[in-house]
Structures are given as C-alpha cells and as structure tokens.
Amino acid sequence: MAKTTPHGVFIWNELNTRDMEAAKAFYAATLGWTFTAMPMADGPDYALIHSGEAEVGGIFVLDGPEFEGVPEHWFAYIAVDDVDKRIKGAVAAGGAVLRAPFDVPEVGRIAIVRDSQGAVAGWMTPTPCLPSGA
Q1: In a designed cystine with 112, which of 10, 11, 26, 98 is the match (CB 3.0 to 4.6 A)?
Q2: What are the pLDDT digits (tens) for 96-132?
Q3: How far is 43 from 40, CA to CA, in rounded Å?
C-alpha cells in the first residue's frame, strides 16, 4: 500500500541561492547539516539537506535569466491532493498561478501559487512513496 502525504501540510523547504557552496558551508557550520548532490539534467546540481538521518530540505541554485532580480530566499511547499484541481480554486478565491503545474520525476506535480494577499508557495501533489521492501 502506498504511503500518502496529508493534504494541506507543509512538506518541503528549499533554499534558493546563487552560491550553493557558501550556503552549504554556512549551514554545515551553524546547524550541522550535511548534503547530498542530486544531478539535474537541465542545470546545476540540486542539494538534498540532511539533519542527521532526516532529509529536511533542498538547495536550488538561482541560475539563469529567469531568476534575475529574484532575491535569495527560503521557499516552502504545501502538499495538496490534486494540484491541477486546487489551483482552479486558488484562482477563484483571488489567487494566481505563477507557474502552471509541472512534473518532477519521483517527486511530484508542482505549481507555484500566489495567494490573495500576495504570499507565494509551491503546491505539490507528491508522488506516492512505497514502504521499504514493497
């Protein structure tokens, strides 16, 4: 049986930075985090953040003209049961879709949503995880 993520909970935090190595050095020195590289086909590696044995987030490099003027920041993702359906409700409630749903293999389907007050978050329908040995 697939393990599911509850709808409406924060599930991932991502540091968006221009200097991954400096960010990793800072958080390793201050929080004791370690990192695992995850190669990306279309850009710089992504880094998975570990606190002890727990995977607690990621680091994304703001690389490319589409990120010009975007400040470095932490970005949160919220689990939703059906991102395609839920973004329609977000727009109807006064929000906006800043990036239409897209698929990330082995991660899930993600959209970037701005709420009616201007706050931005990723909404994600995660790919179900199978328990060990399944």
Answers
A1: 98
A2: 999 999 998 888 999 999 999 999 999 999 998 534 3
A3: 6
User: Is pTM, for the whole model, over 0.85?
Assistant: no
**Rounded CA gap, 113 and 58, in Å?**
19
In order of 57, 88, 90, 93, 109, the CA distances from 81 in angstroms are: 21, 13, 14, 18, 10
Domain boundaries, the chain: 1-8+74-134
Cβ count near 123 (within 10 Å): 22
Alpha-carbon distance 80 to 14, whole Å?
17
User: Residues 108, 111, 115, 116: is their CA dihedral positive or negative?
Assistant: negative
Cα gap 131→27, rounded to integer Å: 30
Tens-digit pLDDT profile for residues 71-97: 999 999 999 999 999 999 999 999 999
